[in-house]
Write a structure and sequence with these properties.
- The chain is an alpha/beta fold and 424 residues long.
- Helix 13 runs parallel beside helix 15 and helix 15 crosses helix 16.
- The N and C termini lie far apart (57 Å).
Amino acid sequence: MNIYDELSWRGLVHQTSDEAGLREHLDTPGRVLYCGFDPTADSLHIGNLVPLLALARFAKAGHKPLFLLGGATGLIGDPSGKDKERQLKTADLVAASAEKIKSQAMAFFARLGVDGDVMPVNNLDWTRPLSVIDFLRDTGKHFTINYMMAKDSVKSRIGREETGISYTEFSYMILQSLDFEHLNRALGCTLQIGGGDQFGNITAGLELIRRKTGNQAFALTFPLITTATGAKFGKSEKGAVYLNPELTSPYAFYQYWINADDRDVVDYLRYFTFLTREEIDALAAQTAAEPHLRAAQKRLARETTAMIHGEAELAKVEAVTGALFGGGDLATLDPKTLKAALEAAPGLSFSALADVPPLPKLLADMGLCPSNSQARKDIKAGAVSINNVRVTAEDRALAAADFLGGDLLILRKGKKHYGVVTLG
């Protein structure tokens, strides 16, 4: 299948500079394309997954994607979608973030088996040697102020008297255009892809290529993804969902997808997995017929978690999920994943086992029971468990063997109320 048709049925084509021409262009394998990622943070997030996956899809289709790090543009700041000026970061911070993002992205491509087909490049390499005069004479002269003012990224800021737009951010469009023209000339790159807010910047690059070389090139953007409730995609209660496991644990990452709304999940399967049309249609039918089974959400969570964190982490997450909600043996689980799963539960930490109060007081101190007396009643009624093992003796002493991995004990009151005790 032509990669353009693949992206189309997945709902990933928002705008193109020439739909018929681009589709025909992509009939020939080996086309060079790129997508840029400015290092504005130390980690990519799930909002970056659509373009990352697109690069992988192009690679699997026999084309030659470039993963462009914005080592230069990241020093300037893209005004697209922003209502005020970005805070400029130091060159050292931008360079450090760029290296972290590069490592993260290439590990992602390696898990998909296309790391040898995706080439990383950094626009600082060809921008840094330029003098201001060279930049203005060779690139800036091809852009009129009228043309730049008509672009949405500039137009939306010009009307804001309190913030406006600096010359620095105003020039971002020209820098991005320079990237496209350089890659077109140096590597034969004929396509730039990106989010819908990048269409103005990308087409500016097409204009620069046309003016300087007369070469043919194309633009393709992806749609802005929103949830059925109108919430911003990629945001959880704790903020952005990052690809870095130190910022968003694999368990939290998995839970984000498994909690997808029934109205969103089929679209997400098209956007964020490599499942075929037939597989997705079957999951859509099952979701409509048996929504309580959440088959589509489970498959989505499995596919995305394995893709970002690997099969080993997925196995740990699924084991913890099954044990917590199915009453399994907690002693066999990965302690780090278990802690991440219970991070929202009330917790108490003690320096030694001797400092841990009796079980009824412990339950009351954690808020799992309203009082010591009620805690004793709940224990006698069989409503309290230690590490998923029911406790019936209110004077049950806690021993070192109760602490998983030597420092973690899980209390449960009823079916859903957990508490975590740690020894530090």
